[in-house]
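Exercise 3.2. Students should predict the tertiary structure of the chain below and write it as structure tokens, then compare their answer with the key that follows.

Predict this chain's 3D structure.
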Amino acid sequence: MNFDLTQGQQEIIRRAGEFAERHVAPRAVAIDRTGEFPRDLFQAAAAAGLAGLNVPVAYGGGGQGVLACVGAIEEVSRRCASSGAILLVHNLLVCEAVSTVGSEHQRDAVLRKLASGEWLGAFALAEPEAGSDLSSLQTTAARIASGYRLSGAKAWVTNGTSADAFVVFAKTGDAGLTAFLVERTRGGVRVGTRTESLGVCGSGCCELVLDGCEIPAENRLGAEGDGIRIASRALDTGRIGVAAQAIGIGRACLEQALDYARTRRQGGQAIGEFQAVQWMLADMATDIDAARLLTWKAASARDQGLACTLESAVAKLTASEAAVRASGKGMQVLGSRGYSRQHSMERFFRDSKVTEIDLGSSDIQRLTIAAQILA
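Answer key:
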């Protein structure tokens, strides 16, 4: 495969890197320690053209594909995994869903606000009991004269504490699962407090309760019963984004470990001259490079309109486990300093773990891969 990036893709990645260095990096520690949702950083990202990257130009977006998005997500996640998660969900789950299955009215009214950064999007799929098992979701959407009445609870809604619009999945009787756009201002929408978590603490993750929330029929995304198809496509695309987030975290681990290995001296020499340290650094670099290639392969498949269930699962599994290994090896290279909160390695260690869980655990990815190759 040809992985030469276009000039436009290179420019987006460069711009994302500059944005992350200038705006995100100085705030990363505070975001982690306070759990603050950095809405102002999202607005700055939108001003830099990083919200709605994959939205068609006709609706105010960047007109790019998934590959450009994952490049930007990697750069931002390298500085702050929470900020990377915010862009991941907004672009690859919410904007992508409205772009691909939204009506002309939804694209014109909603997509423009998402692309400009006026609105922040959230993806409400998982539930407290069902997780992201599509067959076990319990939220319902009952037909009423004016449209639908939604009832149920969603869990682990990234961006939820600050989102203006939610893509919600609910059961519509015999029709099966259906997707809806739900504005935060609707009656019956109750946004919970921030979910306390080990890492990625500033991503605004929370519970969303729909207590008889009434929405017009025009808020339905796609046809009744199309929810499983829409959710499955979104999960495939989102997993590529999680892989990019993991690569960004892994890069940060490697860069900090390399810097320390070059400057920390023991026995009259830099510890980077010790073979044991060199092996750990080599493993980290190899893992990250391999994960990026697999992630770009999956993103390229999606941009070509090809099925990418296998590729996205392979990329997410490889990248997330590479990030966890990189954070562990990085902490080992730094020793007690890596364990100290005075250094960022312990944050990378905590942040990396969620990439093995988000949008389907590593075990789920292995089952998906097995099902695909055995079919």
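Discussion points: The CA atoms of residues 74 and 248 lie 4 Å apart. The first helix runs from residue 7 to 24.
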